[in-house]
Amino acid sequence: MKVLVTGGAGFIGSHLVDRLIDDGHEVIVIDHHKREKRRFPNAAATTHKVGFADEAAMEAVFKKEKPDAVCHLAAQISVTKSIEDPVADAQTNIVDAIALLDMARRHGCNKIVFSSSGGAIYGDHGIHPTPEIMNAQPISPYGIGKQAMEHYLELYSKAHGMQGVSLRFANIYGPRQQLSGGEGGVVPIFLDKILSGDPVTIFGDGSMTRDYLFVHDAVDAFVRALESDVSAAVNVSTGREVSVLELWNMVQDVHGKKQEPNFAPFRTGEVQHSVLAPNSAKDILGWEPMTTFEEGLAKTYKWFRDLES
Ligand SMILES: NC(=O)c1ccc[n+]([C@@H]2O[C@H](COP(=O)([O-])OP(=O)(O)OC[C@H]3O[C@@H](n4cnc5c(N)ncnc54)[C@H](O)[C@@H]3O)[C@@H](O)[C@H]2O)c1
């Protein structure tokens, strides 16, 4: 299969590109290279250094490459930035994403896998782990953007017969993750602080919880969605709830040294508890997480330690 990966130079995207190449697919990477300081290009992929909203450039890419499928990962990825500038967030994450979806349709590319976010779309409604049947109640423009794109995928699937899969990810972590901006960002921040010995700040009282998914498991969900012919929105998660304080303790354990954290006020737009029920991904995509948090954290710690040494 020929797969176009937007955001293919990013954290999750670069792992996805490697996996698709290993599996024997042809891969076209679209990335404007404005975000990642460090990149992990795969020489076997064809890279176009363009913004996915650049209509002329993308028309040329679709005409030349004729992809069979699009995995759409490129996005404005910060919840905080989406609150500071909701217009810019909606432009990239909704308007430009619809333009990409429609361009795929016009070029006969009928399979779209979209990087959604369970953490951001469900909001704080109290049912944990949260199943897909719960109403989305996003509390940030970023979450609203993800929900909106899920609706467009569903519409394009019904109206145009396209296959659309929205992967509602938990917080993804792993090697290559950047320190700033993203949703799963607390893991690399804590690893960086423990390795450097710099003070660490916990926002709120540390009781905020998240469901952490190792990046290779996230990538496997993309692969299974590409292999399937269903259209659906599914949680991609572990179903295990870990508090920020527990995470900090696990990071100290893996490093073998104690360090007292500082506490700062809670940040708006962040949900207090997020843990997603993973069951339907198994039924619909045959996907389930393979990496325990302990294993994934140890692998990620080793990667950050090797980077800093
Ligand atoms: N990291 C997580 O925990 C998590 C959880 C849920 C959903 N997601 C979603 O997964 C996707 C990938 O996230 P990530 O953590 O790998 O982020 P990332 O920033 O590492 O990767 C995104 C990539 O997209 C590129 N990009 C951004 N805007 C672009 C544009 N307009 N044109 C071309 N390229 C552009 C960036 O240069 C970057 O390489 C995003 O859609 C994000 O919202 C991430």
The string of secondary-structure elements, in order, is EHEEHEHHEHHEEHEEEHEEHEHH
Number of helices: 11
Which CATH first-tier class of the largest domain would you pick?
A: Alpha Beta
Name the poorly predicted regions.
none
Specify Rg, calculated over alpha carbons.
Answer: 19 Å
Mean pLDDT: 95
Number of domains: 2
Instruction: Characterize the biggest β-sheet.
Output: 7 strands, parallel
Cα(first) to Cα(last) distance is 39 Å
Q: What ligand molecules are bound, each kind once?
A: nicotinamide-adenine-dinucleotide
* Strand order in space, largest sheet: 3-2-1-4-5-6-11
- Class per helix and strand makeup: alpha/beta
Cα shape: globular
Describe the structure.
- By secondary structure, the chain is an alpha/beta fold.
- The protein has 2 domains: 2-173 and 215-238 and 277-289, Rossmann fold (3-Layer(aba) Sandwich), CATH 3.40.50.720; 186-209 and 241-274 and 296-308, UDP-galactose 4-epimerase, domain 1 (Alpha-Beta Complex).
- The protein contains 11 helices and 13 strands.
- It has helices at residues 11-22, 55-65, 79-84, 86-106, 118-122, 141-160, 186-196, 215-227, 244-255, 279-285, 293-308, and strands at residues 2-6, 26-30, 46-48, 69-72, 111-117, 163-169, 171-173, 201-203, 209-210, 212-214, 232-236, 242-243, 262-264.
- The strands form 4 sheets. A 7-stranded parallel β-sheet has the order 3-2-1-4-5-6-11, with helices on both faces. The protein has a two-stranded parallel ribbon with strand order 7-10. A two-stranded parallel sheet has the order 8-13.
- Strand 1 (2-6), helix 1 and strand 2 (26-30) form a beta-alpha-beta unit.
- Helix 4 runs parallel beside helix 6, helix 7 crosses helix 9 and helix 7 (186-196) crosses helix 11 (293-308).
- The longest helix is centred in the first third of the chain and has 21 residues, at 86-106.
- It is globular, with a radius of gyration of 19 Å.
- The site of nicotinamide-adenine-dinucleotide (NAD) has 31 residues, from helix 1, strand 5 and strand 7.
